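Please check this one:

***
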Amino acid sequence: MKNLIKLTILLVAVLIVDSPKINAQNYYMARQITNTALSLDQFITRFDNGVDLNDVKSYKGTPYNTPNYLIGNIYENSTLLANDVALRYNAVSDEIEVKESITTPDEEAKVLTKSIDIYVKINGDIFIFAPYQGGVEGGGYFQVLFEGTQYSFYKKIIKKFTPAKKASTSITTDTPAMFQDKPVYYIVTKKGRYYEFPSSKSKKIKVFGEQKDAIKKYVKEKGLDLNKEKDLKKAVIYFDKIEGSKL
């Protein structure tokens, strides 16, 4: 019950700013807005691509960071707002779905308020919301893979959707709908400037700017493959270290 109250208040946290304490009138308003908040069923209705997301056998892959909800926490800046709630990142709609617990029916899931002050930890993975040109509209969620003293390493989880395809001849078979992972990685400065890593290895090196030769040498010495997330992360960590040593 405590988690439900916290979650109810959180879903409208951006709207309730008059007082740090929630009075009876605000609590009533919070409950009303929560009851009309976007549910998982509404997302399924909005996903008009000829696939029933409830029928997991009708498609391959998943539109989520993980197929199932995982236990996590919700924070506003450094303040814990809700702990041990069920969370899942919907990469297709770019939304965090929230339930009171793992056993709560999926149709009761709500969508987390998008705010630069609110972030979540889902089974240890951190997801933050970054605005676009200072506003929520056009912004999106990123997974924080590393946070350094000078630079951070973010991943934007992107799911490429391919509709189902009927067999064209008697000797071919039907192709099910598919969600395919197409992540994009970024170096992020402390001032919030994003530098996207290209798909090719050689062009990735150029993102490191004046340190590209040092990073190229480090990659060769360590036998890293910059097209692998774990190796690209190591390169970013090293880049942050040598940039920090210049201060």
